[in-house]
Amino acid sequence: MKTKKTKGLLLIVSSVLLMATAACSSGGGNTPEGAAATAGSEPSAETIELRMTWWGSQTRHDLTTKMIALFEEKYPNITIKPEYSGWDGYFDKLSTQVAGSNAPDIIQMDYAFLSDYAKRGTLLDLTPYSSDGTLRTEEHDKSMIDAGSIDGKLYAVTLGVNAPGVVYNATVLQELGIAEPEESWTWKDFAEMSNQIAEKKGSGYYGTPDISGTTNMFEIYARQYGTGLFADNQLGPSQEVITNWFNYWQELRDSGGATTPEITAAMTNALETRPLSVGQSAFDFAWSNQLLTYLNVQKDQSHKLKMQVIPHGENETKIGEYLKPGQFISGNAKTEHPKEVAMLIDFMVNDPEATAILGSERGVPVNASIREQLKPTLTESEQLVFDFIDLVSQHSSNIDPPYPQGFSEIDKNFKSASEQIAFGQGSIEQVTEQFITGSNQILGKSK
Amino acid sequence: MDTSSAFKGTVIVKHIFICLIAFVMLYPVLWMLGSSFKPANQIFTEIWFWPKEWNFQNYVSGWSGFQGSSFARFLVNSSLVSAGAVLGNVITCSMAAYAFARLNFRFKAVCFALMLMTIMLPLHVTLIPRYILFNNLGWVNTFAPLIAPKWVATDGFFIFLTVQFIRGLPRELDEAATIDGCGSVQIFWRIIIPLALPALITTMIFTFMWTWDDFFSQLIFLSDVTKYTVPLGLRLFLDSSSQSDWGPMFAMSVLSLVPCFILFITLQKYFVEGIATSGLKG
Amino acid sequence: MSTELLAVKRRQSKTQRRRLGARYNQNGVALLFLAPWLIGLVCLTLGPMAASLYYSFTDYSILESSRWIGADNFVTMFTADPLFTQSLKVTFIFVFVSVPLKLMFALAVALLLNKGIRGLGIYRTVYYIPTLLGGSVAIAMLWRKMLGGDGLLNQLLAMTGIHAPDWVSNPKYSLYSIVLLSVWQFGSSMIIFLSGLKQVPPEYYDASSVDGAGKIGQFLHITLPVLSPVIFFNVIMQTITAFQSFTQAFIISNGSGGPVNSTLMYSLYLYKKGFSFFQMGYASAMAWILVLLIGIFTLLVFGSSKYWVHYEDGGK
């Protein structure tokens, strides 16, 4: 009796397990693509498959897949498998894939993570392909090549040139009788204008969001006083420069020109939620390609938005403004087909048709002649961005070498430090000191 | 007379009280529903949930999806994954729970402690070894890494839950059944499963919801847009580095709540009528 | 404990004694029932667990292979990482405020919704809706709209002349707005309580009504004891979940744990260390410290359970 029962159970259990394994193996059977990509070139098939990953918005997905279709048309033996997503989780997934030796062959890369990936040997050295002409870089801006190179090796090609700047609401300025800023404006001018705007507009409206915690914008201020963010694997700017920066913003908060700590803390990177977009401020600090988004998402669509360079320092030793790669495209160091990877990268940035499709969605093209070719086709707002980049290229200094490993942690600590000051949880001197020792510790460890 | 009107009074007060809490609970959801009909620039500037004008564009453009994969594709994929996960969890977790709750075997305490420990370790640090494991099995970019673990009872939460329920059932039932000549399998199938139904229903609802909602593992294991599930589809609308399509995102969020909602409404009645436990328990 | 229940228990312990004699070894059957779980444990769970334990003694960066560094990670954690201490503090506050609140609220609503009112199904669904939203990205926007500086709550307060702070973005209150979010999503605990309440045999109530026990008496002497295994489960699981709480703080603070690290939950910090800062070794070490913490807590609750948890199976 009992054994019979047990047998019945055995049957149930084993059939359950069978189902489970069947479900799994049938699932596994669905991935010849993935398997083939990692297994590499099968002798019978001549076609090469490359996986390509990027983050972005729907527009970018549409444009990039169109570009891929064109590439596949021109090179029928290569197929590109796109893997795209939004920004959230993109780098989590990428690092997991790298750990599992299953990273895509072609990778959209961010400036902030370039060193982290390149210095750990995960990115393809593109130098051989740029010297043999597979990947043409002669017409690329020199500073953009430098920005994608580490220790003399090219790891990343710029997909779009960006520059930091101040977006301003020209309609509001006009309404208040304030003259629009000029290229030569200084931090002092900026503070005066912000205070004026806040005063004239009344409560609930600010001149500018408080961006004292945005490392990238502080970087420009630091550059105006001679140092990049990092120098000799140490924090670059002196304690005095950092203190001055925090003091400047403290005064601007106190006078009402900049947003209150609470509003600042409530801001996200999503441009739709920025004070400028929701009609709470007349300025914001942004990257040039973001101007297009601001124009699309601002609350009052009749308002005119324009862009000016980051204010100059009083008695600055050099211009802080610089051209920066928006996004990079890189190869996977473990790819089986490095040459084809280089071909696709070349296609993406140098081919007239491909670049015509991609337009300036990732920023202004890095190739000078492509830039010229695009100019007649630009919309009015794209024209604004191109003009701004032109302006910056005349008034800028070279970009610093890519950030060292550990940047993301320092970046986070800088934001915390500024919040600590704004919420009055420590004096500026004290917080700055902590920040400096903490950062140098992080940098010391990662070397 | 007096007492009955007083009684009516308390019932009304009770209703008003419950309704009030219900409104507070619901307002954010109403706001979300309202937002799904608003153009993007109004979503962030208006607090009142009722849209000034009704705009179905968000639903149209959200449904059209990406590169020929309409949002329906994501819904189908999510349904497949969730159904697989629910089935697996209900079967294997209840089996393991029965063993832990009713059977005597060696190393029971050790096994139970191990089971609890698997719940305690944060997911983020086992993710990479799991990825490497599934990648070696060739399972990456399939639904297998999302479903297979449920068929081997890796969700300790539900084992523990069901154990607690089974332990709430009197042993006399098993013993009576044993006297009637039932073995463990029949006791499990004829007595424990029907009586632990609320726990199984709970397992179903939670597994479905949690799988339906799970962004991180689905992001890591699925790469092909045609295999994307609802949470991944929703994030495709958002790109915090540039422009996000909030309107369609809200519209599709609302839409993707519908299956959960239907499932819940269908299953929740088991918490009222339940099963005829009383007769069995006496 | 009421006399009826005592009588039931007495009957049970009698049968239990009878049963003890008849107990036989069930290793074989147990193995069959446990087979899927054992396969999962050996094939899917133990390996990654062991790997993470190993990583915790290395400088694993995810992107390159790891190097053994002994107990360095643990030493750093306890001597030179103020954010580790901060995240512990935040998490402890969160656990000890949100878990009791959530459970009491869930139990109260479950009792209210268990019987005696029309339209139960609708109410139950309505109360469950916030939980249905889960960790959706929409929640982050929503919460700011409700509790932000000029959110709905503050606009209502402004009508009464009160000027309130931004509950989400002020470091003094931000953690509590996440506590509120977690309490608001009490649906899962409520469901578990509701299904637990189904296990209370109506005869128990009938018998006690005959005895003339009041509502409160019934609750204390019948409902609570019968519900205790489920309460026990909820206490343990909610605490474990709260210790590991990640999603809510992540979406509300935009992944930063800010402002001023006021919502830097342990798991959020662990995640940032592992994935954003490429210190997976350190993150793994943190994870095992968390296991230790939760383990101690769970042991304490298990130890206390014999004083307050009543199993119908006679406590075996």
Topology of this structure?
The complex is a heterotrimer of chains A (447), B (282) and C (316).
Chain A: H1 2-29, H2 32-39, E1 48-55, H3 58-74, E2 78-85, H4 90-99, E3 106-109, H5 114-118, H6 127-131, H7 142-147, E4 149-150, E5 153-154, E6 156-158, E7 161-162, E8 164-169, H8 170-176, H9 187-201, H10 215-224, E9 230-231, E10 234-235, H11 239-254, H12 261-266, H13 275-278, E11 283-287, H14 290-297, E12 305-309, E13 324-325, E14 328-331, H15 338-350, H16 352-358, H17 368-374, H18 380-394, H19 407-422, H20 428-446
Parallel strand pairs in A: 1-2, 1-3
Antiparallel strand pairs in A: 3-14, 4-5, 6-14, 7-13, 8-11, 8-12, 9-10
Chain B: H1 2-35, H2 40-43, H3 57-64, H4 71-102, H5 108-120, H6 123-136, H7 144-151, H8 156-167, H9 171-179, H10 184-195, H11 197-213, H12 216-221, H13 230-236, H14 246-268, H15 277-281
Helix pairs in contact in B: 3-14, 4-7, 4-8, 4-11, 4-13, 9-10, 11-14
Chain C: H1 3-22, H2 27-55, H3 72-79, H4 82-114, H5 120-133, H6 137-147, H7 152-159, H8 174-184, H9 187-197, H10 202-211, H11 215-243, H12 247-252, H13 266-276, H14 280-308
Short characterization:
The complex is a heterotrimer of chains A (447), B (282) and C (316). Chain A has two domains: 47-161 and 325-394, D-Maltodextrin-Binding Protein, domain 2 (3-Layer(aba) Sandwich), CATH 3.40.190.10; 164-321 and 406-446, Periplasmic binding protein-like II (D-Maltodextrin-Binding Protein, domain 2, 3-Layer(aba) Sandwich), CATH 3.40.190.
Characterise the protein shown here.
In chain A, strand 1, helix 3 (58-74) and strand 2 form a beta-alpha-beta unit. In chain A, the strands form five sheets. A five-stranded mixed sheet of chain A has the order 2-1-3-14-6, with helices on both faces. Residues 1-44 of chain A have low confidence and may be disordered. The radius of gyration of chain A is 26 Å and the shape is globular. Chain A is built from 20 helices and 14 strands. With 447 residues, chain A is of the alpha+beta class. Chain B is mainly α and 282 residues long. Chain B folds into two domains: 2-58; 63-281, MetI-like (MetI-like fold), CATH 1.10.3720.10. Chain B has helices at residues 2-35, 40-43, 57-64, 71-102, 108-120, 123-136, 144-151, 156-167, 171-179, 184-195, 197-213, 216-221, 230-236, 246-268, 277-281. In chain B, 56% of the residues are buried. Mean pLDDT of chain B is 85; it is low at 274-282. Chain C has 316 residues and is mainly α. Chain C is built from 14 helices and no strands. The two termini of chain C are 20 Å apart. At the B-C interface, helix 1, helix 4, helix 5, helix 6 and helix 7 of B face helix 1, helix 2, helix 5, helix 6 and helix 9 of C.
